[in-house]
Structures are given as structure tokens and as C-alpha cells.
Amino acid sequence: MNPFDSINLWAVLVAASSAFALGGLWYGPLFLKPWAHASGMDPAAAPSHPARIFALAFACSLAAAAAFAFVLPPGATALTGSAAGALVGVFFVATSFGINYAFSRRSLLLWLIDAGYHVVQFVLYGAIIGAWR
Fold first, then answer.
1. Secondary structure class of 72 (helix, strand, coil)
2. What is the pTM of this model?
3. What are the boundaries of each domain within the chain?
């Protein structure tokens, strides 16, 4: 059996799209003010982003969701997928951010907000892709 046969492309697409919905909430009403303050920005003067930034962000989200779907075990469920997503989010993504943020002397709060987003992102990826296995 081809390992790519177990990947549900609709689940990957929905998982990648969920990163945008999460980002709108996370960096909007939930954490805009503390994130902007920790980044040294005025939250009222938040810059707008050109379409190419959103296109690149979606391409990256799509690649991450597809790779996650590829490595998620065939018997995964929404629950086990979420657990795998939490593991990847915390121990791969957040720790990688932690190394960079430590050397660039960024604040703990900024790391918690940015890394937290990606932990939840991968939990969502796992739930969505695991549910559609």
C-alpha cells in the first residue's frame, strides 16, 4: 500500500485552513494587545499584511498539515491525533521557538503567545486529520 493513500486531502485542506481561523482569534481578540506590547508595537497601529504573506502562510500551513497527516499513524482518531499534535506542538515547535527566542532575547510572554498558537494549531491538525482517517 502506498503511504500517501491514507492521507485525506480534504482533511489536510481543512486542517491548514483551521490555522487561519485560529490565527484570527489568537492574534486578534485573544492576544493582540499583549502580543503587540511584547513585540514593541502599538496594537492600534497594527500593520496590514499584503496578500503574498497570507499566501505564503497558507502554503506553509498546508505543507505542515500534509506532513503531519503523513506521519500520523493509520489508526489515529481525533483524540490520539490531538495528543500527537500536542506532542509535536510542545516538543518540536515550541522548543524550537524557545531556542530562537532565548538567543534573540525575546520575552517569555512573546514566546508563550507565539508557541502557544502553534501548539493549538497542531492539536487542531491532529483532531481534524485523526477524525477523518
1. coil
2. 0.93
3. 3-131
